Amino acid sequence: MPNSSRVSLIVLAAGQGTRMNSDLPKVLHRVAGAPLLHHALRAGMALEPQHVVVVTGHGGEAVAASARDFDETASVVVQEPQLGTAHAVAQAAPILAEVPGDAIVLYGDTPFIREDTLQAMRDARARHAVVVLGFEARDPGRYGRLITRGEELDRIVEFKDASAAEREITLCNSGVICAEAKLLFQLVAEVGNANAAGEYYLTDIVELARKRGLSAGVVVCDEAETMGVNTRAQLAEAEAAFQSRARAEALENGVTLTAPETVFFAMDTVVGRDAIIGPNVLFGPGVTIESGAEVKGFCHLEGCHISRGAQVGPFARLRPGAELAEDVHVGNFVEIKNAILDEGVKVGHLTYLGDAEVGEQTNIGAGTVTCNYDGVMKHRTVIGKRVFIGSDTMLVAPVRVGDEAMTASGSVITENVPAGALAVARARQVNKDGFAVRLMEKLRAVKAAKKDNT
Ligand code: UD1
Ligand code: CA
């Protein structure tokens, strides 16, 4: 039976991450556009935790801000100095020790634990007081080893402290642990640091629980889920792992990817069934694409929404706040930021629309620019329905163009255009007969005279 009682999360993120060779705290390095920390929190969030506590140390302020960015109710505690994983968990005691229900310990640098896996751990709590997430390691390396006897987990031995025989064991500790919060903090308080590293090991709570006559058990997950990031090379591997899974999922969900290996998704990308994504498309955070929309090759999308029937690209850039209604067409070399395009709007070529609203069925000519920034402030451009914006129109915001109005090509529009009006804002053309021919003759003569003098 699924365990539906309340749970709290403790996310360990105090480690320095020395091997990243970076000024940025390790958990703030990004995979699929999101900090590692957000990936760890995402899996935990599926359990609808009543409390989330993030343990920070190195780069504490930035990590705290990032945690709150994901979940504004998250608590942040500082572990200073960092004396080991048990010591890190103990920092959450003031917040969680009296909270009823279970606590799950996650690592901020381990992004791919699945929510089903966490749920399986919660369910296993019906059989064991302490549940540890383990995996069969292809190369067990320096992971802690799980010493089991049948269904029971006797203890966890860290690599540094393991005997040669124990090092042969391939069932390893992922680091994720689940226990009743109250018990977890009691056990953590008993952990000592008499070991090879001189650290307070969270892993010691298994043996301490067993000494109390309590049961400990293991839930085994796929090794891919437990992948941790300690180096830039592993960060790149994590990115690759994320992308190959995201591509497979998109295909599975009925999305056409012409060249899957060239499409890069963000952690939160949503693409509807029967959408078509061309080659070399990059998704930044916050993109949703409805069923049946098409994104052609070489588009860069971030913080935008593309509705059913819309077509984007090739070579389009949609920035945060770009909202495309149904059947909108956005063509090549078009950039859209913080702008709402109503149904059937066409923006075919070479255009910037920023801080704008465009009414339904309006056509925006090539080379149009909303001049939204005066060097200090941003201003809005509001364009009505069924408007025709001539090619190379500069719309100097704040400015409004009424329904069914037109602007003449090459206009610089600085004043509002009433509905139904044609705005012409450019110098009138003058043709000077024979002038071009005479001018060219003169220039050639000047050039020839120069040559004779040298
Ligand atoms: C830990 C486990 C090991 C397991 C491995 C899986 C212990 C003692 N060992 O080892 O059994 O196989 O993870 O990757 O738990 N952290 C803090 N404060 C600290 C120390 C660590 O917040 O004082 C955080 C780190 O930022 C990191 C996590 O805890 O997110 C794990 O710490 P790390 O030092 O990487 O543990 P390992 O030695 O890899
Ligand atoms: Ca580690």
Distance between the termini: 98 Å
| Bound chemical compounds | uridine-diphosphate-N-acetylglucosamine, calcium ion
**Strand element count:** 33
Rg, rounded, reads 30 Å
CATH architecture of the largest domain: Alpha-Beta Complex
Overall morphology: elongated
Q: What name goes with the CATH superfamily of the largest domain?
A: Spore Coat Polysaccharide Biosynthesis Protein SpsA, Chain A
Largest sheet: 19 strands, parallel
SSE layout and pairing:
Elements: E1 7-13, E2 30-31, E3 34-35, H1 36-45, E4 51-56, H2 60-70, E5 75-78, H3 85-90, H4 93-96, E6 102-107, H5 115-124, E7 130-136, E8 145-149, E9 152-157, H6 164-167, E10 171-180, H7 181-190, H8 205-211, E11 216-220, H9 232-252, E12 256-257, E13 270-271, E14 276-277, E15 282-283, E16 288-289, E17 294-295, E18 300-301, E19 304-306, E20 311-312, E21 316-318, E22 322-324, E23 329-341, E24 346-358, E25 363-364, E26 369-371, E27 381-383, E28 388-389, E29 394-396, E30 399-401, E31 406-407, E32 412-413, E33 422-423, H10 435-453
This protein binds uridine-diphosphate-N-acetylglucosamine (UD1) and calcium ion (CA).
